[in-house]
Amino acid sequence: MSYQQNNYYVSRRQQNWSRNQNTTRYTSAVKLGPVTHTILVALMVAVLGLIYLTQATRATGYDYEAQAIDSQIAELDQQKSELEIENARLTALETIRSSSVAREMTTPASTEYVNQ
Amino acid sequence: MKQTVLYTRRSRIFATILLLIVSIFVVRLFYLQVIQHGHYAALADQEQLKKERIPAMRGLIYAKSDGKPSLLVMNETVYTVFADPAIIKDKQEVVDVMKRVAGGNLRTDFEALLDKTDSRYQIIATKVTRLQADKIKEEGLSGVGFQAVSQRVYPEGSLAAQVLGFVNGEGEGLYGLEGYMDADLQGVDGRLETVTDVSDVPLTIGDRNVREPAQNGDNIVLTIDRNIQSYAEQALAAGLKRTGATNGSVLIMDPTSGEIMAMANLPTYNPAEYFKVTDVAQFNNNAISKPYEPGSDVKTLTMATGIDQGVVKPEDTFLNTDAIEIDGWTIGNATKGKTGIISFQTALTWSLNTGFVTVAQRLGDGKTITRSARETMYQYFHDRFRLGQLTGIELANEAPGILYAPDHQEGNAIRYATMAFGQGLDATLVQVTAGFSAMINGGSYYTPTIVDGYVVDNSYDPIDAPKPVESGVVKESTSDSMRAMMETARASSFGYLDRQGYKIGGKTGTSQVAREDGRGYKDDESIATYLGYGGTDMPEYVIMVSLSGEGRELQGARDALPVFTDISNWIIDYLKIQPKG
To answer: ipTM for the complex?
Structure first.
């Protein structure tokens, strides 16, 4: 196992940007060929694709949940609407007039007004 | 060396073949993806992209009840059940389930419809409720489907039917408020465009999703009070029964705002079952759509014109001979015997035509109804009291009526002589009531209105109080004089019918009915009306009653007045008007 130590001269600008870095770099003796690079790139693309698919699937899952909630809201809205109609029918004048309470009521013989 | 050459040659052949194959793929892909792009994109869209209309909810209509909105017209979702006879597996099961769950909603021939296997769509039941639809769905019938439909619901039944109008099968508002304010009530449909999966579930992926929510129609609150409307309809029905009249209308208006408190017409119909009506005349709101010769009610307007112009006073006198001649035509009184020197108050009390023709003459040179007199009458009747023209009330099919101007060939002296006692002109109840209200409220004309406000986000949002479109229609002193005359006229004959402590005034009307051929009037038919008001210091309500019937000779005092009295005595309590004195 051997390594080679190299010294590089760096420009002033680069020196300014990496002021606190070592000026000595070590290069690995392991060299990656073009095939390896291609495979690595392909793997990275595949991983990114998988991540995209995972996220898209998760978003689609939310769509199903949203759809279910929308359906529930529509169902509840319809039930509310039906109850409002029923309420309106029960409080309609004809219903009130034919109720047992109304049948027992009589017309007042006279009306007195009190000045406040 | 030779092998190398062979190897190279085979490689080249293989590479060429490969290149050819790849070229074929490339060309084919280019054709499909570039040249045919539009076609396949459209096919994909058709499959994946769903476009839906989000229907706007039609606006609700409210009446008022003790000052609060009370629902008159609502929306209900019902279902139309259809069958695909070609794929029904067990017809008997479908028949049994449908009869058990939706027996009353089935088409009479629905069993026969299920046998039409060459058809893919047969409607077998209509107006099925959600609960019924859910029960049918639970049975899992094959070949049976549902279509949601929105329909109008009327919790108060036929109450104010002609005011409301109805909505036809195409969702179009017809007659009444539904017709006049159709665009406001309809709202604007929304739009949904989205990529969906195989189950039609909208997906958020893609950049072409469009969701424009629907704008629901306006929820309108009417000036109509449902309790007053209901009582007016009952009183009118009793009046028709008592008199034998076949048609009747009642209009109740607030004279200080022009707001319609009730507008009743008989015969009526149930708007939920408009399709069962055989006589379309029942859809008409006669109070606004049927001009007629108003008769003696208009004498009050003639008298007000005379007083306002300073040519007569209630206590002024004239010689009544029960007949008066105008341009060779003799005009007589219906009530005979009040001859001699009598006051205009007496003329109003006994509704003597001669008295009001005399007023018309005094608007001119005192002897004839001059052009100047006619122009003055026209100015008051048409321009101030606004007879013979549309009032602008927010209801469909309002009719203008007819009032001839003095420069029209029909606007001659005899025409204006008859107009002085309410004939020779056509006006609607709403026109006469609005003009009368201006006369008794101190001289402010209010446009009759039926819309009181809106319900927005479940909160009542009333519109601003109406303002008079014209003030000074008559002087306040004229208005005071006219109220005093009408209260005297009513008290002299019918005061005992009224509640004590209130100022009730009015005028009877018995109108002749013009013959269809335009030659004079029918001998056996007349329209009875009563136009009056009630309150204490100032009138708080105006009621106009009209009764008619083919071949019926009806009279204002005998037939229409009791309906007015009935409503007037009731409404005093309902409006909590405290007596004075």
So the answer is: 0.79
